[in-house]
Amino acid sequence: MTPPTADRDYWEERARRYGARAAGYSDAAMDAYEDRLRRAAINRLVGQGHGRSLLDAGCGSGRWSVRLAEAGWTVTGADISDTLLALAPRAPNVTYVQSAIQDLDLPSGNFDAVLSVTALQHITDDHTFEAAIENLTRMLRPGGLVAVLEYAPVRALGRTPAYMRARSRAQWIRAFTSRGYRRRAEAGVRFLGHGPYMLAVYLARRLRPSTNIEAPPPALNWLRAGCQAIDLTLARVPGITLAGDVRLLIFEKGAP
Hints:
This protein is an alpha/beta fold. Helix content is 38%, strand content 20%. Helix 2 (28-45) runs antiparallel to helix 7 (194-207) and helix 2 (28-45) packs parallel to helix 8.
């Protein structure tokens, strides 16, 4: 596994290469496809802030920090990458802090909620991962919520890139319940739809090399919308939602 310094180097290089999109998928079509699914899950299970405080852990270029502030949260966005934070838009009720999650030095019990959107899965060292979860727990008030949207299949099979550590759904649940959290809710995010859509995108780019790869192919917007509708429906079906490989898990911190 790569050490934490390599994690930081990875994100700095990715930010220089892809700009603000570095915090999501490097492929603009895949990013556009899954962004709607993630947004629907977070809106449904995290909801409105009504002035409460939220830590966006691994905020990248501020996509979710800004959206959650618009939903009524007072947001602190923290990220390991100076370059990504420099690209983050300034917005009302959003404050940015540069720090790795495990090193973030903010007051204990400071937040009503914590959100991680595909950030914790990129902590590749097990000891650092455990330290990050401990630090998030310290900064969250008793009764507060942790929302983690991560790659969390029922079984983590096969090889993953060096910049990512694949953990199963059970491993994610254990990481929090072993610290006294209660699992409150979950929803699968990504199911079947991205397969046919991205295949169509690939074919469109091969057949028309002049296609702008920096944006989703407009001619396939109808297909993307239809495939997204399928995944959004599956996300609400009990039992089937477990089949998603990317999922949103909500935990409530217990009393001390």
